[in-house]
Amino acid sequence: MYLGLHYAWEWGVRKVILEVDSADTVLAVTNRHKGSAQLSILTQVLVLVDKVWEVQVYRVPRRVNWVADGLAKTARINSLDCDYFETPLAGIDELLLVDTLEAGLG
C-alpha cells in the first residue's frame, strides 16, 4: 500500500482508488486511528494520504480480488522494487474475468 501510494504521488497521480481486502486496514486509514499509527508503515501511509490529493480507500472481499492477488504473487519476496506494465501480464485477463463474474458484474 505504501509503495503504491508513494509512486502514485511521485508520478503525479492526484486521484487514487485504493482497494484492500483487510477491513482493519481500511478502518485504520480512513478513521485515522492514531493509536494504531505506532506502526511505522501506517504512519507513513497516513502522511501520504494527507497530501493534497484525493485518495479513496475501499474494502474489496478477497473472493473478488483475484487480479490483485495474482499481481502480488508475481512480486519478488522482500523486494522494494516497483514494476510498471504497459500491457497486462499473462493470465491477468483471465483473473479479471473471474473477479467480474464473482462480483456479479458479468
Describe this structure in words.
Helix 1 packs parallel to helix 3 and helix 4 (66-74) runs antiparallel to helix 5 (92-102). The protein is of the alpha+beta class and 106 residues long. The model has no long low-confidence stretch (mean pLDDT 80). It has a two-stranded parallel ribbon. It has 2 domains: 2-59, no CATH class; 62-102, no CATH class. It is globular. The longest helix is centred in the C-terminal third of the chain and has 11 residues, at 92-102. The chain has helices at residues 2-10, 23-30, 40-49, 66-74, 92-102, and strands at 15-20, 54-59. The protein contains 5 helices and 2 strands, in the order H-E-H-H-E-H-H.
Give the helix tally.
5
Strand portion, in percent? 5-15%
Radius of gyration: 15 Å
Shape: globular
List the helices and strands in order. HEHHEHH
Largest sheet: 2 strands, parallel
Class computed from helices, strands and strand pairing: alpha+beta
Q: CA-to-CA gap between the ends?
A: 28 Å
The main sheet orders its strands as 1-2
DSSP helix fraction: 40-55%
- Which whole number gives the mean pLDDT? 80
The total tally of domains equals 2
List unreliable stretches of 5+ residues: none
- The number of distinct β-strands equals 2
InterPro entries: RNase_H-like (IPR053151), RNase_H-like_dom_plant (IPR044730), RNaseH-like_sf (IPR012337), RNaseH_domain (IPR002156), RNaseH_sf (IPR036397)
Organism: Hibiscus sabdariffa (roselle)
Protein name: RNase H type-1 domain-containing protein
Domain RNase H type-1: 3-75
